[in-house]
Batch of 2 targets.
Target 1
Amino acid sequence: MKYQIMGQTVPTVEVTLNKGESMYTQKGGMAWQTDGIEMSTNARGGVMKSLGRMFTGESIFMSTYTAQRDDAKIAFATTVPGDVKAVNLSELPNGLTVQKGAFLCAEPGVELSVTFSKRFSAGLLGGEGFILQKAEGRGMLFLEVDGDQIERDLGPGEVLKVDTGNVVAFESTVSYEIETVKGLGNIFLGGEGLFLTKLVGPGKVIIQTQNFGDFAGKIISMMPRSN
């Protein structure tokens, strides 16, 4: 399997498959394909994993595309302006924790499952940051990044606090919890969200510069309303 990330504003990843090789994605993820690709749709991983994906904002059913001949090409596109992050899970034995909505596509050897914050109450209040996905296995995983991607390598005990909507993924060696912004003045006058994601190293963290939830909220607030 070979791949090429194409485009700049709303990028895609175009994958070249040999006969028998496959990629899977959520509903609507495929942008284009050449002849020689066969599609099958199912509840990948069984009913429970499918229901778990529903809570993360992904589709219940996944589509798998399998090459019927060598050099067949298929492309998967992002949904908003941003970037595509390629991750070789074979190099991450502990897997990767992924923000909901960040999954774009993957090879069949990559398994996705729902994971939860250890602090249930904080995660529940934290909204965006509560439900995450655990990506494990072997093969290539492609993530959708809103805006530009920033990578940080945290040392042991090093802390990084990020707005929950700006977290894309982090290595499973990084501990995670949701904390509230301190001070009533900061909460009501600061203009930021109420919650931050606290990430503690060691491990790699992937951040996105665009919080699309906040962006969409600003657009909606400026739309005219009928009386």
Target 2
Amino acid sequence: MRVLIAGHGFLGKRIAEELLGAGYELTVIRRSPAEVPASGIKFVACDLMQTSPTLPKLDFDLAVFCLAPGVRAADLYRKTYCDAQVNFLKNLNVTEYIYISSTAVFPEKAGTYREEDGSKHSERAEILLEAENIALSHRGCVLRFAGLYSAERPIYTAAASAYTEDRLVHFIHQDDAASAVCHAASHKLHGVYNVHDGNPQWRSTALKARGLPAAILPAGEERVISADKFFATGFKPRYASYTDGVSSVSLKS
């Protein structure tokens, strides 16, 4: 099966490894040519925020869009998620499409949030939902990932003094995020899915797992994001919690 991936960063590289290991034939779009060509991957240099790529004259079985902005700025969000996605999909003949989104579409307020509860509570969320609708108009599968981390990039690197309140936080390990993409591809999923490890933890617990000073913080909003819909498709994460994943060496096999 032929796969086209937009993005080869923290998550894109891991998705490529996972799909390559599953026997897929990969073409990856990145802003600049690969410094060291990865075995089995064809690279196409293109800045999708500016233009559409010149691709091999091939039909693709699967396309995956996983670009992410370097900073949280509205104009960059729109260029990255909306403009680049439109350029990516232009003239693309593909059977299945997976778009990587974020649980930031849900407000930081108490309550239980399911897929249909995404809202334009901020400019960032509004742009994310607009980008999701672009994917859905192409019969895409939208995977909303929670806090993405690995043992090497654990998210929490500062002591509790950097935070003003305790919060219930949702996570997904980098390896499990890549596995979720493969799962969605193999099951030919469509529509929107929230994705995390199923075990949200309080920020204070995450800090302790990192061995960081965790002073007593005032309790914040108990926001719960439901991933029941994705789990119902049979997905099982390798790392059951942030505590498990942050203390383990990522398994690449």
